[in-house]
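Response regulator transcription factor: structure, please.
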Amino acid sequence: MTIRLLVVDDDPLVRAGLTFMLGGSDDLAIVGEASDGSQVEELTDRLRPDVVLMDIRMPNVDGLTATETLRARPDAPEVIVLTTFHADEQVVRALRAGAAGFVLKDTAPAEIVAAVRRVAAGEPVLSPAVTRQLMHQVAGAPEGSDDRAARARARIGQLAEREREVAVAVGRGQSNAEISAALFLSVPTVKTHVSRVLAKLGLNNRVQIALLVHDAGLLDEDGDVR
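Here you go.
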């Protein structure tokens, strides 16, 4: 199956570079380009991309606003945030809105291609190391932290015990295979639990599960259960 891509960046050179590096893959097709977030909804309706590569900083409608608008739709494509920064506040907000991950603009072409394939397959683009860095960023944001923690704990409380264990493992940045080994479950069973957690909590992807687990204060800075 060919993965349909929409590239959104206000820099024409960046768009050209991404189109060149991604267009050479047999299973990827660039179906459109946008120079501003204001164009994203119309292009999505017309071109039906599977994945949107979204620049986070644009002069009119930025990538954060465009991601929040796009991911609120019932038929939303997956979004990968493009950024020059590792885990700043805007990236965290985009991930809370449902972006499946982020890649740096200086990432090697092969890694960007791999990221697009992973997101199209329903996997997040966050390694355990990046997940830990992201969660440190979340932990360092005091605004509304008490209320957010209380809401997060209440939502986690909706889960059955095994679902909670799987959610916490996702919060550590573990893959399905790692969760399978740690909890003595088959990989298909882990996938089923992840799907149930997403459905029960009304979340879009594993990144949002990880953010919720950390908001609830269930892990310490080393990723251990509190």
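Notes: The first strand starts at residue 3 and ends at 8.
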